[in-house]
Amino acid sequence: MNLRTKITLSIALAALVAACSPGEPAANKTDAGEVNLYTARHYDTDQAVYARFTEQTGIRVNLIEGNADQLIARMTSEGDASPADLFVTADAGALWRAQNAGLLQPTTSETLNAAIPANLRDPEGRWFGLNRRARIVAYDPAKVQPADVDTYEEIASPRFRGRLCVRSADSVYNLSLVGALIEAWGPEKTAEWTRGVVANMARPPEGGDRDQIRAVNAGVCDIALTNSYYYIRMANSEDAADRAVTTKVKLAFPSLDGQGAHVNVSGAGVAAHAPNRANAVRLLEYLASPEAQTQISAGNNEYPANPAVPAPAPTDAWADFTAHPMPVALYGPRQAEAQSLMSAAGWR
User: Is the pLDDT reported for residue 60 higher than 70?
Assistant: First the structure.
């Protein structure tokens, strides 16, 4: 989609209410400035969280939307004059791309360091994971037992020849998973795994994660790689057809080397040339708060990154798993090597 600057009506209305309501604190009755949010996340829940932030602080949130690569290109072309204050996107790999392009600056915040575990943020504070998602397996319980997919090795094993659905190799979710496998196993074993994945494909990669889940339901394949929140969202969808899919397709949480399921993050970092840096840090700290973490988890079905915040309903029904402790900051630097291994295996 084309990039567009969008200040949502709900956020503008929240700012008006914050400025005019006689019951609000004095700080909310004045213009507390703004924060320009370059975001690759396009969820109503996120916008409601920004509106709540405006209600509490009086700080206007201006949304500039696009996908991660578009926003990175835009920030790069804008250079020192970029109005970007905070960059928000899904996947640690995408956050690393912005970091590697010199578009994010370190943030020192005791609030953020206390709320977000070290393995879910950049060691230098250039970005912080705010919401977790697991990359796991959807399976047909009529054909597959949970023990058959309890490790990531099993996904590529000969037992699943012609039985796997997966999206393309250029999906950042897959790049980060393969990057994590390289970190855990080294390139030789990971190359063997990618060859096994290609040999097991029931069809050429196509569509997104929900398409893989639907393909399992349709009998196209017996297992599929997916992010957890897509399945949870389908299970609680207003669409009866999607809900029906999840009554027949189940989730398994494979373990990587016995240490738990591969997890990734959505997150944010303060832009390198942020004109409203203090407001950007304030919004970032709010996004790590229990209030915002709970609201986003309940609405978007990701898991809170803040370990003090339990997953709310309906996400809590799929929250009883062990997450691998690998630092998510390791995924991005492995992307080029991951892409090379996947291409060599024929994963398109």
Answer: yes
